[in-house]
Amino acid sequence: MDVGVVYGEQGILLIKTGAGGSIRGRGDKYLQLARHVHEMHGFAAFTVTTGAMPLVETEMEHAMEIVTRYRENLGRAVPVYFFGMSKGALEGAACLYRYGIVGRALLINMPLMINWHKSKAGIEQFTGESITVVFSTRDPSYRYSEIMQGVKNDRVRLYIDEGKDHAYDGDEARLIERSDKFLFYEKRLC
Questions:
Q1: 119, HSE (Cβ side, Cα atoms, 13 Å)
Q2: Ramachandran quadrant class, 174 (left: phi over 0; alpha: psi -120 to 50; beta: rest)
Q3: What is the spatial distance between Cα 121 and Cα 117, in angstroms, rounded to a whole number?
Q4: Helix, strand, coil proportions of the chain in percent (round to 5)?
Q5: What does the radius of gyration of the chain's CA atoms come to, in whole angstroms?
Q6: Geometric angle at alpha carbon 135, from 131 and 137, rounded to 5°
Q7: Most-buried pick from 54, 70, 119, 126 (CB within 10 A)?
Q8: What are the b/e assignments for 86-103, b being 16+ CB within 10 Å?
Q9: Of 128, 122, 120, 71, which Cα lies nearest the Cα of 104?
Q10: Confidence of residue 169 (pLDDT cuts 50, 70, 90)
């Protein structure tokens, strides 16, 4: 597990990559996102790689330990947000509810055909402020995205991103726009 850090004090964004991804991401998408949330919002950003092996609970436990320790070192309860891409989104869906410190989560193109029962159960138990699940129309899971309507949690919303592929290749700026919209700016209902 590799970890990239941009330090900040106003909050923490945990970025979990897709399986086998790097902390920079293709086209530097995760690095651009980390720098953006620091420059615009004063947040620290921890980008944590996601392995190809199915170690969902263990990987999330290690990532959340990093976030928890950093938050403790700040000496105050700052907001914690989560951004997960592909398998990173799957880990967030299945595990975030266990930690109780994540206020907002953005899950992009999570593979619905892998352990849907665990993802659904985790999303239903999420008690943070909001959790937004995004599917791109050119992502393989898009055709199954209607099953999200069966999730019972008023904090959850589904968003469809027209014309984008699984990894947002060549449109890294769109990922920043989505994080701003769903994590930082949109008024919350909860």
A1: 25
A2: alpha
A3: 6
A4: 45, 30, 30
A5: 15
A6: 160
A7: 119
A8: bbbbbbbbbbbbebebbb
A9: 128
A10: confident
Give burial (CB, 10 Å; 0-12/13-18/19+) of 169. exposed
Give just the sign of the alpha carbon dihedral 43, 190, 179, 49: positive
Q: Give the per-residue pLDDT at 55.
A: 66
**Which tokens belong to 95?**
């595990």
For residue range 19-58, list pLDDT tens digits in order.
988 999 888 999 999 999 999 999 999 999 988 766 668 8
Query: Averaged over 133-155, what is the pLDDT?
Result: 95
* Verdict on whether the full-model pTM lies above 0.90: yes
Structure tokens at 68: 């928890």
| Residue 72 exposed, middle or buried by CB count within 10 Å (0-12, 13-18, 19+) | exposed
* Residues present in the chain in total: 190
